[in-house]
């Protein structure tokens, strides 16, 4: 590997706020020569100085006077992903370290697959790539809810942009039959359809949580919130399924609601229901 090459880091920033980002993610972003991030993620990263103050309408440059080496911040958007991947490859070849920011974890419906596919397409096997993990919505939402994922679980994206609905339906049905706790991503697309399929294989009284902007407090698109309901009543909560930041956690036959003096939680036991089983 040439000493003149930089590294392309695909960085998961979790919910995006500083308290929920790993130290590795923070270090990589702060020291990168170029950071590629959407406007929303730039806003999150500027809150505690992980990124410097904005100096231009569409991103900017931090100078040495601001306490760090010169750093370019490039705005990312859905329509520019291929263009920005190629730009990142060229920057790395010119010796720059590039941090390509992904919300949540880059491997959970994030950006890591695109960059590897683009590297293959463009014969960019000379470009060093490192994935920096982050907290995905399933884990952030589960922490908010207590212990719903303490046994086997799976995630299913309801986006039919890349997968046909027949394939999504097959996965949902298999997950329901197998007893997995199911975490649904991209719920703004087909969540009612998905719930009806799960109801074919799972009792209506199993607990379901609708989680918005997990870990983001009031900084997300809709503000952090959660609603605990049942599978039979989940589609009655359209107002809580607010957009891209919404995920659903669908319990199984062992998942129970649990309350203390402050709030309600969901718990899926790892094994037996008796403490002596541990």
Describe the structure.
- There is one protein chain.
- The chain starts with 7 loop residues before the first strand and ends in an 11-residue tail after the last strand.
- It contains seven helices and 14 strands.
- It is 28% helix and 22% strand.
- A hairpin with a 4-residue loop joins strand 13 (256-259) and strand 14.
- It is α/β, with parallel strands linked by helices and 278 residues long.
The number of distinct helices, counting runs of at least 4 residues, comes to 7
Q: Strands across the major sheet, in which order? A: 3-4-2-5-1-6
Radius of gyration: 21 Å
String of helices and strands: EHEHEEHEHEHEEHEHEEEEE
Helix and strand content put the structural class at: alpha/beta
Strand count = 14
Helical residues, percent: 25-40%
Oligomer: single chain
| Global geometry | globular
**First-to-last CA distance:** 49 Å
Low-confidence stretches at least 5 residues in length (pLDDT < 50)? 62-67
- Overall pLDDT: 90
**Proportion of residues in β-strands:** 15-25%
């Amino acid at each position: 590997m040439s000493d003149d090459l930089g590294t392309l880091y695909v960085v998961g920033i979790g919910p995006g706020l500083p308290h929920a980002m790993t130290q590795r993610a923070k270090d990589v972003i702060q020291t990168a020569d170029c950071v590629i991030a959407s406007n929303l993620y730039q806003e999150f990263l500027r809150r505690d100085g992980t990124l410097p103050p904005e100096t231009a309408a569409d991103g900017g440059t931090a100078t040495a006077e601001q306490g760090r080496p010169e750093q370019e911040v490039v705005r990312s958007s859905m329509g520019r992903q291929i263009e920005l991947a190629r730009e990142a490859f060229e920057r790395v070849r010119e010796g720059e370290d590039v941090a390509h920011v992904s919300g949540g974890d880059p491997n959970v419906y994030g950006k890591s697959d695109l960059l590897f596919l683009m590297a293959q397409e463009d014969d960019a096997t000379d470009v060093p790539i490192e994935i920096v993990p982050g907290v995905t919505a399933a884990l952030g939402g589960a922490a908010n809810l207590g212990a719903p994922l303490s046994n086997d679980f799976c995630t299913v994206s309801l986006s039919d942009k890349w997968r046909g609905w027949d394939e999504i339906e097959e996965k949902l049905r298999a997950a329901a039959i197998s007893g997995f706790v199911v975490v649904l991503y991209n719920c703004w697309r087909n969540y009612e359809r998905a719930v009806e399929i799960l109801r074919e294989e799972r009792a209506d009284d199993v607990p379901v949580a609708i989680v918005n902007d997990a870990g983001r407090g009031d900084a997300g698109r809709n503000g952090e919130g959660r609603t605990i309901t049942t599978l039979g009543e989940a589609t009655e909560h359209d107002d809580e399924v607010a957009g891209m930041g919404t995920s659903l956690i669908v319990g199984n036959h062992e998942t129970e609601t649990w309350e203390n003096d402050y709030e309600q939680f969901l718990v899926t036991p790892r094994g037996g229901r008796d403490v002596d089983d541990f």
